[in-house]
Amino acid sequence: MTERTDRNEQRVSVNLAERSYDIVVARGVLDNAGCAIARALGQNGGVAGRTAAIVVNPKVDRIYGPRLVSSLKGAGFSVITIPVAAGESYKTLRAVERIFEQLYRHAVDRKTVIVALGGGVIGDVAGYAAASYQRGLDFVQIPTTLLAQVDSSVGGKTGVNFGSAKNLIGAFYQPRLVLVDPDTLKTLSLRERRSGMAEVIKYGVIADASLFSRISDEIAGLLDLKSSFLEEAIARSCRIKAGVVASDERDMGLRAILNFGHTVGHALESVTNYRTYRHGEAIALGMVSASLIGEEMGITPPAVTRALTDLLVRAGFAVKLDASLGIQQIISLLSLDKKSVAGGARFVLAPNLGSATFGHIVSDAIVTRALDRQRLM
Ligand code: NAD
Ligand code: GLY
Predict the structure, then answer these.
(1) Other C-beta atoms within 10 Å of 317: how many?
(2) Is residue 188 lining ligand 1, measured as CB closer than 6 Å?
(3) pLDDT of residue 3 exceeding 60
(4) Which of 106, 116, 262, 273 is most deeply buried (CB count within 10 A of its CB)?
(5) Exposure string over 141-176, b if 16+ CB within 10 A, otherwise e
(6) Ligand 2 test: best mutation among 145, 149, 199, 259, most atoms within 8 Å of CB?
(7) Is the C-beta atom of 159 inside 6 A of ligand 2?
(8) Distances in whole angstroms, Cα of residue 253 to Cα of each of 175, 245, 247, 248, 269
(9) Looking at residues 326-333, what average pLDDT do you find?
C-alpha cells in the first residue's frame, strides 16, 4: 500500500480510554483512507479478508466513491457499497434496515468496518447501523459537509428520527477514526458551507475567542475555501468538541454547551417544518437569540451580541427574526424541549466571547423581550 502524506495534516485525539480515536484533517486524505483505516484498526500487517462497507448516498458516491473504493482496495480490503437515499426525510429506521439487508445479503462477518461517506445524515444512520449490526461493527466517519466535519462526525451520537421527533432513537457509538478532507467541500454549495460555518462560529463563541477573531478576519476566504486557515479552523473546532466529549461523553452536563444557539434554533426549524432554514441558518438566528437573552439576564455583555451579529451578517446569515414567525409559537415549542423545566426553558449563555455556561432557566417573559428585540434588528 502506498501512502501520500500531507505536511499540513492536523490530528486531534478524542480521549475516551479504550474508545479513544483520532480525527485527521488533511487535504487529499480521502486518497489515503485505506491505509489510515487499516492503521486505526491495528492492521498494519494487512487487512486481507476484511470487508469495508461504504454507506453513501448516490450523489456523493458519484463524486467521491471511486477514489475511496480504490484506496480501500489498495490497502487490501474487500469493498461493498451500500447506497442510502439523501436527505433528512430518509433518516429513518427503514434506512437502517436497508443497510442491515445489504450487510446480511453480503454475509459480512464481525470484522467488517462500516465507512460512512457523506454528511451528517449518512454519518448518523450508518453509525447507528454499525452500533447494532452483530452487536457492533467497527465504524469510520469520512464527513463531506462542513457541518459533519466539525460536528456530527465527532462524539459518537448516532441515530434516526422517529415520528415527528428528531434523533429519538439512537446510540452513543464512537467511530474508530474520523478522516476529514477539506477538499471535499469544493463540491458543496455555498449555502451548505455557510450552514456548517455557523457551528464553527459557535465554537469560537463558547470556547475560543481567538478562533472567533480569526474567523471574523477570514470569513470571506473561509466560505469560498481560499483561506489557508480552513484546515486549522476545522481542526480547532474538532478539538473543542473532542475536549467537551472527553469530559461528558453521554451528555449529562457540560456537553450541553455545544447546544449554544440550538434552543431557539431547533424551535425555528420545527415551526417551519424543517423547510425554510438549513440547520446552520436556524442556529445563527438562535445564537443571536441566546445572546440577547443573555443580555436580558445580565450575563452577556452587549459587545458580545454586536461582535456575533456583525460576523454572522458578514457571513451572509439573517440575524433578524422574521415577523411572520409567532413568538408565542416559538415559546410553546421551547417548553416541549426535552431540557425544559417548570420555570422555563434551559439555555446556554455566553458571559464573554470564548466562554459559555449552561443550565440557565429563562422565563417566557425574558425570552419574549429578547425575541421582540430580535424582530427589530
Ligand atoms: P446532509 O447529510 O443532509 O447533507 C446535505 C446535502 O449535501 C446532502 O444532499 C448531501 O447529498 C450533500 N453532500 C454531502 N457532501 C457533499 C459534498 N462534498 N459535495 C456535494 N454534496 C454533498 O446534511 P448535514 O448538514 O451534513 O447533516 C445534518 C444532519 O446531521 C442532521 O440529521 C442532524 O441531526 C445531524 N447532526 C448530528 C450530530 C451528531 O452529533 N451526531 C450533530 C449535528 C448534526
Ligand atoms: N451536536 C451536539 C453534540 O454532539 O452533543
Answers:
(1) 21
(2) yes
(3) no
(4) 116
(5) bbbbbbbbbbbbbbbbbbbbbeeeeeeeebebbbbb
(6) 259
(7) no
(8) 22, 10, 9, 7, 24
(9) 91
Say yes or no: CB of residue 174 within 6 Å of ligand 1: no
Atom of ligand 1 nearest to the CA of 154: 40
pLDDT band at 1 (very low <50, low <70, confident <90, very high): very low
Q: What is the pLDDT of residues 116-156, one digit of tens each?
A: 999 999 999 999 999 999 999 999 999 999 999 999 999 99
- State how far the alpha carbon of 93 is from the alpha carbons of 55, 99, 128, 311, 353, in Å: 15, 10, 9, 39, 40
277-302 pLDDT, tens digit per residue, is 999 999 999 999 999 999 999 999 99
pLDDT of amino acid 46: 76
**Cβ-Cβ contacts under 8 Å for 279 (sequence gap 6 or more):** 147, 195, 198, 265, 269
Ligand 2: which residue has its CA nearest to atom 3?
258
pLDDT in tens, 181-199: 999 999 999 999 999 999 9
251, 338, 358: residue to mutate for ligand 2 pocket, most atoms within 8 A of CB:
251
Q: Which ligand has the shortest distance to the CA of 206?
A: 2
- Which ligand ends up closest to the CA of 195? 1
Residue with cell 461504504: 54
Burial 272-310 (b: 16+ CB within 10 A, else e): eebeebbbbbbbbbbbbbbbbbbbbeebbbeebbebbbe
Sign of CA dihedral 342, 343, 344, 346: negative
At residue 7, the pLDDT reads 59
Site of grid cell 467497527 = 138
Atom number in ligand 1 closest to CA 185: 18
| Ligand 1 pocket residue status of 155, Cβ below 6 Å | yes
The answer on pLDDT for 177 being more than 80 is yes
Nearest of 311, 291, 117, 122 to residue 222 by alpha carbon = 311
pLDDT tens-digit readout, 231-240: 999 999 999 9
**For residue 113, how far is the Cα from the chain centroid?**
21
Is 279's C-beta closer than 6 angstroms to any atom of ligand 2?
no
